[in-house]
Amino acid sequence: MDRLFAADGRLARRIPGYAPRPVQQRMAQAVGEAIADGASLVVEAGTGTGKTFAYLVPALLSGRRVVVSTGTLNLQDQLFHRDLPRVREALGVPARICLLKGRANYLCRYRLQKARSHPALRGEWARLRELSEWAQGTDSGEVAESGVLADDDPLTPRVTSTAENCLGSRCPDFEQCFVVKARRAAQAADLVVVNHHLLLADFALKEEGFGQILPGADAIVVDEAHQLPETATRFFGQRVSTRQLSELAQDSAQEAADYGDLPDLAQAARALAAALPALEARFVAAGARETLEAFLARAGVAPDVHAVAQAVDGLAQVLRAFAERGPGLVACADRAQDRHNVLSGLLGPASEAVVRWVEAGGRGGSLCATPVHLAENFTALRAAHPGAWVFTSATLAVGEDFGHFCRELGLSDARTLRLESPFDYASQARLYLPPGLPDPNDPAYTDAVVDAALPVLEASRGGAFLLCTSHRALRRAAERLRREQPFPLFVQGEASRTQLLERFAAAGNGVLVGTQSFWEGVDVRGQALRVVMIDKLPFAAPGDPVFDARLRAIRQAGGDPFRDYQLPQAIMTLRQGIGRLIRDVRDRGLLVLCDPRLRSRPYGRKILSSLPPMATLDDLAGARAWLHSLETA
Known about the structure:
Layout: H1 2-5, H2 10-14, H3 22-37, E1 40-45, H4 51-61, E2 66-70, H5 73-91, E3 97-99, H6 109-116, H7 125-135, H8 156-159, H9 178-188, E4 191-195, H10 196-204, E5 219-222, H11 228-235, E6 238-241, H12 242-259, H13 263-286, E7 290-291, H14 292-297, H15 301-322, H16 327-346, E8 354-361, E9 364-371, H17 375-384, E10 388-393, H18 403-409, E11 415-419, H19 425-428, E12 429-432, H20 445-460, E13 464-467, H21 471-484, E14 489-491, H22 497-507, E15 511-514, E16 531-534, H23 545-556, H24 561-578, E17 589-593, H25 597-600, H26 603-609, E18 615-617, H27 620-632
Parallel strand pairs: 1-10, 1-11, 2-4, 2-5, 3-4, 5-10, 12-17, 12-18, 13-15, 13-16, 14-15, 16-17
Antiparallel strand pairs: 6-9, 7-8, 8-9
Helix pairs in contact: 3-4, 4-5, 6-7, 10-11, 12-13, 12-16, 13-15, 15-16, 20-21, 20-27, 23-24
């Protein structure tokens, strides 16, 4: 590893701009040892470590079959199309590599043909014809490459499959299926790039009719691992959505229409479709997440929920009677029975190990059940797929302590390694704590934050992020900044994240106001971003059913919910936001943390000690002087 990563090593000779970093070598060595030993390893690698190369090099050289999981589809594409080919070519390793996404990203030939004959989609027949023509020449079948479907296009679910509506090996297009081809390629590859949703779905959903990804893998590398607990919360439980049930009713009605002699099925499908609007309205009225018990206690909700459950049961009974007539009916019967089983479980007796909750979304919502603790489920996942497990991110520890992350996922046996960022924060950055701000619970707090931000923006001449912890704060801050400062303003929600970042970087003196989606996975280098301001400490707000249930469980076990859960979570989230400021050895900037609790509360000292080492400025004059020095640097 030392020779490969050295200044005159193979990577430096073959990859333009490569520079050796001792922390990168240390991480690569630890990853290589974990893969060789079949061990679990948790690595916090500070911004600028080059962790992607640090795990790709030992993975490719190991001769083992490796699965690499990233946080998002964008990171997945970046890893596969940019980083992985460069490393493989530099090493001269003839490894077979494969990119695999969830089935919703691939065109389904069978459902496309169904859609082309559906009367309700007559207005889309021109686009469906375009998709059909594109399908004849594509190798991957990824609908994003078709140029026909936009993001969140309502036509997409009509021409792609889910684990529920897929016919599997019964499908007449099985041998030409793009998902089948992609999964077979993944099974034959030495290194497969997936994302966290697919990694967990492969285990939790146990999709039938397709080869799984994890069996046969010698090592699994989880990048952006700080996102894994939240993603796992979604998968290690059960969920029924009004959208799923609406699609089940639509597909069942289509099957009845195709056969033409199944009036009972048509009637059962209509009964389910007719029962859903009332429940959808109940979700919309509820709005925020709440416990299932609270939702059912709302006037009129329980009868609407039970009416839908009865309609699902009735549809399942009818489908079972006709299932032998064709694969489409079999698939619908299986889906209806599964939805009935999940609903019965959700509406049955409560369990202390599970929290039941509901969530509005789109035109309706979902009924959900989630384990209070993830550790048992994730331990089962690792036990089912023994071998090396490597978890890495820029934020996994609180100081030197990995306890919070490891406890969440049951990683009591994992090796840990914390590597500081190679960036020189002491010379590249300063921390400004604006004085005189009110308590964050004060109704005028966001206005006070903007008052503190305006002179900083004037001194920096723009080039700033204002990261907010709520949409309400975002709206108020954006409203005032639009009126009271002269620089180009970019506000989350007014365009896609990609578009906003491109426009912000091009402006050079912009001000971007964002919430959670801009706290991580954002990389703006150079002078375009020289100030990052954070309105308050990102403590999770009480009221979320899963969050509250986990706090209760910690309290019942004799722990301290704030110390053991809320504070570590807030520190890791805060460090993600702070990580937007310095992205390169040449970057210089000012970090502004507005929350007065950093000074007034005992835990503020622990939070400040977890941040990168940089000098603290206590007054506006010092902040202005630092910003003026950036102009002359």
